[in-house]
Every structure is written in C-alpha cells, then in structure tokens.
Amino acid sequence: MNLSKYPIERRYIAKRSNTRPGTRLTTGAPAFFVAHDTGNPSATAENHYRYFNTLTNRSASAHTFIDDRQILEIIPTGTSSDPAEKAWHVLYNVTADNERFGYNANDAALGIELCYGGNINFQQAYQRFVWYLAFCCNKWNKDPRLFIPSHKQLDPARKIDCDNALKSGGLTLKDLIADVTAELNSIANTPVPVADFTPLPVDLALALITEYVRPAWAKARVADKQPEAEHFHRLAVNLRAAASIDDQLRPLPSAIKLHKSNVQELVFRWLSPAWYQATAVKDTEAAKLAHDRANALRLAAGLPIS
Ligand SMILES: [Zn+2]
Predict the structure, then answer these.
(1) From the CA of 270, how far away is ligand 1's center (Å)?
(2) What is the 3-state secondary structure (H, E, C) of 141-201?
(3) Where are the domains of the chain?
(4) Ligand 1 mean position to 38 CA, how many Å?
(5) Tell me: the pLDDT tens digits for 184-227?
(6) CATH architecture of 8-189
(7) Cα 60 to middle of ligand 1, angstroms
C-alpha cells in the first residue's frame, strides 16, 4: 500500500478524565481497531475536535475522525512517536470485546470514526477511512479480517455504527473489510516477483551452440533431414533467448526461461557423454566443465542443480 497516500493530521484535545485521561493503552500498541461512525450526520472531523475538546458532562471520545478532507487524530494513537492513549469509545460493561480480543476496547483498541452525511462526500471520506484502517493494520501487523470489529459488533444492543454510515454509501461492513484488505495488499507493498530461473551466461550459450548445436544442425542439413535441422535451429534460438541475446548477439529486454526438455536433451546428448569421456581419461578439468555447464542449464530452466 501507499503509506503516504493521505496526510495524517494530529491536533490533540486537552487532557480531561471524561475524554482524554492521558493514560497509555494497557497493551502499549493498539491491539485492534474499532470501526465507528459518528452517528452525527454532516458533522466534520473539525466539528468533532471542537466538541470533544470542550465536552465535560459525559465520558466519551475516540482517537481519529475521518471526513472527506482530513484524517484527524484528536487523541494519540501511536501512528506517530506519540504513544497510544486510552479513549472512551466502547462501553466497559459490554463483553464482546473481552470475549473476542481479551481486553476492553478502551484499554486496547483505537476508536476510528467515519464522518458522513450532509455535505460530506461519502466516497472521499470512505477512501480515507479504508486507507487509514489499512495503514494501522500494516503498522501493527494485523489481519483486517480479524482485527476490525464494528462498534455494532461489540455492542449490538445499543449501536448501529459504523454499518449505518456505510449503508448510506450502499456498503456493508464486509465491503469495508474487503476494501481494507485490498488496500493493504495493493501493489506498492507487494514484493516484486522474483524470477525463478537464472539467465544462462552468454559465453556458455554461444559455446554450446558452437560446439554442439551448430554442427548437429549442419549435419542434419547435409543429410537432408529438414525436421531435425529445424529442431536444432530452435534449440539454438532457445539457448540465446535464455542468455538474453538475439541471433545478432544484441541484448533482449530479458532472458527467457529455458525449456526443461532442452536441458534434458543437451545433457543427455552431449554434456553427459562429455563428462563420462573426461572421467574415463581422468581429465578432471573437462569433467568439471561438463558438470558445471549442465548445472548452469538446469538453473536457466529453474531446475535444481545436481
Ligand atoms: Zn461508535
């Protein structure tokens, strides 16, 4: 995923026991992420910052508010060097969080709020919400399918978020989890596939063609064995392609994996007899050459060496 797709803004509310007690999460780093919506259509992240910064008459808060323009952390989450602090976003007496995660959400989880409704562009806000959840899953190595409960899942008797805001955009919690998972797995974070073969050294490809393939081709031509001549011609083409060169020795964009059958043929027809012959006359150097050439061919086909 792109770790800097959106800026994460931080403007913390004042410490106060009913909103931001200033104590660290019991788990240190966040252990899961509760997906909320504000239940307050049209109110922005900025509106919620102001509300919670001055709230005195009840215990409530959350860490992060996301609308169509910003991702705003109003209580430290640990996404920066500021360690994650507790917020009051799930009632202590509900038990689904304890059963599922072994902790009260307030002690162990981030509360992440989707702002929606009114003038808030749902798609813009939703994309930021998805990205931020993926960012958190990436940072703390959590599987989105396991570690993003909705508030409704934790407190189904009282709560309908964030499913309710998602519904306003025609989506479900299942869609959200799938989108977070896709974001997490998106291209930038996916390791570049490693080639499963080693290109053939150019000098080896040319040596095999000169010593074995071309003479065999010439012999087939002289004997008027056209299919055989064509076969050796293709073998030479494949050897050059495995060494990433064309028939004029110009470099190709990339090497092409050698066919397993080409390796078998080259070893069976020429390299194995060369090895036996060298061994019989105790020519260790020639035997080693044949052996090394066979292994280079195997690597060029992605086969194990012997
Ligand atoms: Zn909630």
Answers:
(1) 73
(2) CCCHHHHCCEHHHHCCCCCCCCHHHHHHCCCCHHHHHHHHHHHHCCHHHCCCCCCCCCCCC
(3) 8-189, 202-300
(4) 7
(5) 988 555 544 456 788 899 999 999 999 999 999 999 999 999 99
(6) 3-Layer(aba) Sandwich (3.40)
(7) 10
